[in-house]
């Protein structure tokens, strides 16, 4: 019985973490709604949201949320990505593809070249 109690407690903690993450995401707009200057809506239906992001050198978007996403960097560059946990500086190569679970963040182009990416977000249950 004790092991079931530990499993039950662990499941409740996981549920709490997930609800907290979802609540935080709900506090921030989708990228194309909060930063229309940098994000163009290419397609939206019941299953996906497809965006094109363009960040000029020195440009930053606003804090925003994404569903689970796959990102294709048409043109990479140097970026600072800020989340609630802090800021990470990364260099992304042209043609890089990444997947990321739903999250809230803000992106700044800290390089000297324009960065463009195509973002495909799943709108299905995460």
Structure description:
The protein has 126 residues and is an alpha+beta fold. It has a single domain, classed as Jelly Rolls. Helix content is 23%, strand content 45%. The chain has two helices and nine strands; from the N terminus they run ααβββββββββ.
> Which architecture per CATH?
Sandwich
> Based on DSSP secondary structure assignment, what is the total number of beta strands?
9
Between the first and last Cα atoms, what is the distance in angstroms?
31 Å
The secondary structure category is alpha+beta
Strand content: over 45%
CATH class: Mainly Beta
Oligomeric grouping of the chains: single chain
Task: Chart the SSEs and their pairings.
Elements (H helix, E strand, L loop, with lengths): L1 H25 L4 H4 L4 E6 L3 E8 L8 E3 L2 E7 L1 E7 L2 E7 L4 E4 L2 E7 L5 E8 L4
Antiparallel strand pairs: 1-2, 2-9, 3-8, 4-7, 4-9, 5-6, 5-8
Kindly list the characteristics that best describe this protein.
126 residues, 45% strand, Jelly Rolls, alpha+beta, 23% helix, 9 strands, disordered N terminus
Q: TL;DR of this structure?
A:
The protein has 126 residues and is of the alpha+beta class. Helices cover 23% and strands 45% of the residues. The strands form two sheets. The chain has a five-stranded antiparallel beta sheet with strand order 1-2-9-4-7.
